[in-house]
Amino acid sequence: MTVLKTSLRNFLAHKGRMALSAVAVLLSVAFVCGTLVFTDTMSTTFDKLFAATASDVTVSAKDASDGGETTSDNGKPPVVPASVLADVRDVEGVESAEGALHSTSLTVVDGDKESLSPTSGGPTIVGNWTANDARTMEITSGAAPEGPEQIMVDADTADKHGLELGDEIGVISVVGTHTAKISGIADWSVTNPGAALFFLDTKTAQQVLIGESGVFTNVNATAADGVSDAQLKKDVTAALGGDYKVLTAQESAEAGQKDVEGFMSVMKYAMLGFAGIAFLVGIFLIINTFSMLVAQRTREIGLMRAIGSSRKQVNRSVLIEALLLGVVGSVLGVAAGVGLAVGLMKLMGSIGMELSTDDLTVAWTTPAIGLLLGVVVTVLAAYLPARRAGKISPMAALRDAGAPADARAGWIRGGVGTLLTAAGAGALYLAAAADKAAEGSMWLGLGVVLSLVGFVLVGPLLASGVVRVLGVVVLRVFGPVGRMAERNALRNPRRTGATGAALMIGLALVACLSVVGSSMVASATDELDKTVGTDFIIQSDTGQLLTPQAVKAVQDTPELERVTEYKWTEADFTTPDGTTLKNTAITAADPTYATDLRVETVQGELSDAYRPDSMSVHEKFAEDHGIRLGSTIDVAFRDGSAGELTVRAITSSDAVVDAGAMYTSIDTLAKYVPADRMPLDTLLFATAKEGKQDAAYTALKDSLHDYPQYTVRDQTDYKEALKDQIGQLLNMIYGLLALAIVVAVLGVVNTLALSVVERTREIGLMRAIGLSRRQLRRMIRLESVVIALFGALLGLGLGMGWGATAQQLLALEGLKVLDIPWPTIIGVFIGSAFVGLFAALVPAFRAGRMNVLNAIATE
C-alpha cells in the first residue's frame, strides 16, 4: 500500500512531465481503436445493406458471380430466360416471384455529358424497379418509371449532382445510349455506402442492358409462411435442375460481404500497421521520460533505499507509475479513437462513401484491445528505467544528483548494435544480389529489421560523432551559444540517441518509400519510351470496357492513321507436357499491336503470333512447360470452343509493360468465340497521321465527348497519370506516417522539457553570469534542432539504403532504374530542422521564464 501511495504521489507530482508521454499513448491507442471502430462500422453498414436487399431465394445464371457482380467480357450481364420465372412461380412454397435485371457495366451521364458515377469508386447500377427494391427504398418524390422515356434515381445521387424531376440523363451501355427523363427519386431506408442507382421499367431495362426481351439477370423468390429459405432453395433447385445458381438470402448476403471483405482487410491491417509504428516510436518517448525521471529522483530513491525500501519496491514503484500512465493514456485513447472513427466516416462521406453514425459499431473487443496494448506497451517501455532505478545503491544515490552511468552496459549495447547493423547490411546485400524476387524479399525484410534495431542500439555511439559534425556545420556559426547547445546534446548520448531514433523510424520509412516510388515512376517512364510506339492510349480509369460505339467513334476520327484494338479473356490451356492450366489469361489484339508495343522476343517475331491459329508465350512459361517455336497448345476459350494454336513467338519475361502476356490475334479469337460473346476492348492504341499529332489529339477528345468514362492520353499524359497515381498512394502513406512523426516530435519536446528541469541549477548559474533569456532560448532551440537533424540524418540514410535494395528486387521484375528523389530527401532534412525548432518552443519559453535565484537554489 505504501508503494502504491508513493507511486501515485510521484505520478501526480510529475503530471506535467507525464502529459506528453500520455499523449503518445493516447494517439497510438486512438489510431488502433479508431481503425477497428471504422472498419467494424463499414462491415455493419454493408451487412445491413446486403441483408436488406437479398430476397429469400435468388436464381441467377450458372456463370453469374455469387456476390452480384454483373460485368462480363462482352459488356452484358449473364441472364436467365423468362421461362425460369414461370417455373419458380410454380414451385410449392413460393409465395411470389419476380424477374429482376441489373448491370454495372455501363455509365450514366447528365445532360452536359458529365458522368454521374460515384467518385468513391462505388458501383453505378442500372436495373428495373422491383418489389424487392421497394423493401429497402421509398419513393420520396415523383413516381416509378413507366415507359422508355422515364428513369428513377436514388436520392443520394440526386443530391450530389443536383438532379431534379424532369432532368434528362443518358445510360451508355454496350447496346447503345438511351436517354430518359427523371420521373422519380427514391431514398434508402438503410445506409447506402456509395453506389449510384438508376431504375427503368422492366421492358426498357431489358432492351437497354441486354438488347433483347424475355430475359432477367436473376429471379427473386419470396417464401410462403412456414417455409424456410433452405427448404425453398432445395425445392427450387429440384424444379430447375442444376443449370442455374440458387442462393438463399443468407448465402447472397455472405457473398456480398466476401466481395468487400478483401478491401476492408487491406485498409484495416494497413492502418493498424502504421499504428504499430506509432507505438514503436512512443516506446522511445516513454523510455526517455522514465529514464530522466529516475535520474532526477536519484537522491529520493537513495533515501527510500536508506530507510528500508527494497530493490523490488523501488522497481515496483516506477512500474506502477507506468501502469497509471498507460491506463490514463489508453482510456483517453479509446475515447479519442471513437471520435477518430467518426471523423474518418465524415471524410469518406466527402468523397462519396456514405457511412451513417447510426451504424457506429464499438465492439467490446475494441476498448479491450486498446487498453491492453496501451498498458502493456507503456509498462514494457518503463521496465528498463525501473530496473535501473532498483539497482541504484543507497550510498551512490545519496552522494550523486543523477543516476550513475553504466559504461559497461553502454559498450555492450554499442557492440550488439554494431553486430546487428553489420548483419542487417549483410542481409540487404544478399537481397540486392538475389536472383529471385521471393528469395530477395525475405533477405530484405530481415535486413530492414536487423539494421533498424542495430541503429537504435548503436544510436548513442553514433550521436557522439554525428552531433559533433552537425555542430561544426550548423551550430558553430552561433558562437558560444551554439557550442553550449552542442555540449548539451552530447551530455547524455543515450538520451540523444533514443530521441533521435524515434524520429529516425518514421523518416526511414518516408525515405524508403520515396526511393521506391520514384524508381517505379522512372523505370516505367523509361520502359514506355522504349516500348510504346503509338501516339495515344484510350481506356477507362475505372476499368470499364470500351463499348462498340466508342470504338467506332475512335476509328472514325479522320486524323488517325491506324487504331489497334486490344482485348483480354481467359482460356484453359493444355500444354505439350500434358499440363492443363485453368482460366489462363490470353490477350487478343490486331496485328498492328506488334508495332504499337515493341515487345522483346527471345525467339521468333511477335508479328507472327497474329497469323491464323497462332499465338505467343513468354519465356518463363515456355521453360516451365517445354514449349519451343512450332509447339502447339490446346486452347479452350471461355464462352467459346477449343482450338489448337501454334506458338510462333516467345517473348521476354522481363517486360514491364504487359508483363507475362500471351498474345493471339482478334481474328483467331473470333474463330472460336461467337460474335455475341466476343469480349469488348480493354483499351485502344491510336496513331496519328504524319505531322497531325496535335490535331488528332483534339479530334479524339471531340470524338469521345459523348463517352466521358473513357480518357484519351498521349505518352506525356500517360506518364503524368502514372506519376500521379503513385504520388497519391505515397501521399496517403505519408499521411499515415505523420502519426509516428507527431509522436516523435512529442518525444523531442518531452526530452527537452525534462532536460531543462534537470539543468535548472545550471541554467540559473548561466543566467547569473550574464546569459540573456534570448541566448538561453536560442541554446535550447539549437539543441533541439541538432537532435532532430541527427535523427533525420540516420533515418534518411537508412531509408535510402532500404529503398535502393528494394529497387534491386524490382529490377528483377523489369523496373531497372534507380532514382533517388533528392528534392524530397533534402526537403525532409530541412523540414526536420523546423520540426526541431517547433518542438523547442515550449521548453525554451519555460526555461527563459525561470527565476534566477530560485533556479540557483534548486537541489
Could you list some keywords that capture this structure?
859 residues; alpha+beta; 10-stranded mixed sheet; 58% helix
The helix-and-strand class reads alpha+beta
Radius of gyration: 34 Å
Q: How much beta, percentage-wise?
A: 15-25%
The number of helical segments is 27
Number of strands: 24
Work out the oligomeric state of the chains in this entry.
single chain
Low-confidence stretches: none
Largest sheet: 10 strands, mixed
Average pLDDT metric: 84
Overall 3D form: globular
Helix content: 55-70%
**Terminal Cα span:** 29 Å
Account of the 3D structure:
The protein is an alpha+beta fold. Among the domains are: 180 residues, no CATH class; 218 residues, no CATH class; 164 residues, no CATH class. Helix content is 58%, strand content 16%. It is built from 27 helices and 24 strands. Strands 15, 16, 17, 18, 19, 20, 21, 22, 23 and 24 form a ten-stranded mixed beta sheet that branches. A hairpin with a 5-residue loop joins strand 16 and strand 17. Helix 2 runs antiparallel to helix 22, helix 8 runs parallel beside helix 22 and helix 24 runs antiparallel to helix 26. The longest helix has 48 residues. It is globular and about 95 Å long. The protein starts with a helix and ends with a helix. The model has no long low-confidence stretch (mean pLDDT 84). InterPro entries: ABC3_permease_C, MacB_PCD, Macrolide_Exporter_MacB. Keywords: Cell membrane, Membrane, Transmembrane, Transmembrane helix. Its main location: membrane. Belongs to the ABC-4 integral membrane protein family. It comes from Streptomyces prasinopilosus.
